[in-house]
User: Fold Thiamine-monophosphate kinase from Alcaligenes pakistanensis.
Amino acid sequence: MLNEFGLIQQYFNRPAPEGYLGVGDDCALFTPTPGWQLASSVDLLIEGQHFFPDVDPFLLGHKALAVNLSDLGAMGARPKACLLALSLPEIRPLWLEAFSNGLFQLADQAHCPLIGGDTTRSKQGVVISITVLGEVSAGQALQRSAAKPGDDIWLTGTLGAADIALRLLQGRLAADSERLAASRGALEQPWPPYRLGHALAGLAHAAIDVSDGLVQDLGHIAKASQCAAHLEWDALPVDSSLDGLPADLQREAVLVGGDVFQLCFTGAPQQRESIMALAQREGVLLSRIGSMQTGSGVYVRDQQGLHPAPAQGGFDHFGG
Ligand code: ADP
Ligand code: MG
Assistant:
């Protein structure tokens, strides 16, 4: 039976890249790039609350890091390293093997080495917390408060799929295996456009990653920037896995559905061409979905006119 040290050694100790001191010491070490700011973020994933107990552990390892890379991208930062805190009720070798493979595959691709962590036994379910460290050239971070009236609002990827997959898996939507097959990748293996996020530093204005729902997250930009956000319903990229669903359900999934891990950002209209060129270079689907205006709040314009966006929704863990 593996103890804590054996477990770390077997599953989480891979050679750190040149210039890093990784797993094995009391602290990891690396040298920050001169003139760059350190960007850091941490996320907590709890079994039964943020993931299903029987989710594929390879995908879980991927997602645990992906949600953190999403935060770095939303700040305009590039990944530098990550740390993993893991609490497990028992040691399951196959689970650990798959989980660490999923994590390392994305970590390698993102040049975000795992340089340390902590491992403990938990009384209840699995708890996963990843801390990411990134860097952004000083003064170029994409802060939520940086949107200006007249800015375009941009969104990467599509909307609604993760929400529909979650409803299907929770039985809140009648079973439909074809629709589940089309949508569950968005929920279980998100690919946040973190490289585009970094490329936008110093070019875009405000940015946020859509984790709690478009309206809620864009609302954070609007509030921090003291502006209003006007969305164009027809410009919103509805995921094709929503085809054929009732219009009100599509609208809810698109506007308030969470777990999207795409990037919503604002930029000056003069930068449209440069922004589109960057997205094309990164192979990222990009839509211009509205504009920032004077005022406050989030609005949606459709054929009936301009309405306040549904205030309801957005995933609030402590909400009623
Ligand atoms: P300490 O008691 O000094 O906190 P630990 O015994 O917890 O150190 O960990 C030993 C080494 O293994 C440290 O370098 C730590 O960063 C690393 N480590 C522990 N758990 C993990 C993990 N789940 N993933 C990666 N590294 C880990
Ligand atoms: Mg420890």
Notes: Residues 118 surround magnesium ion (ligand 2) (CB under 6 Å).
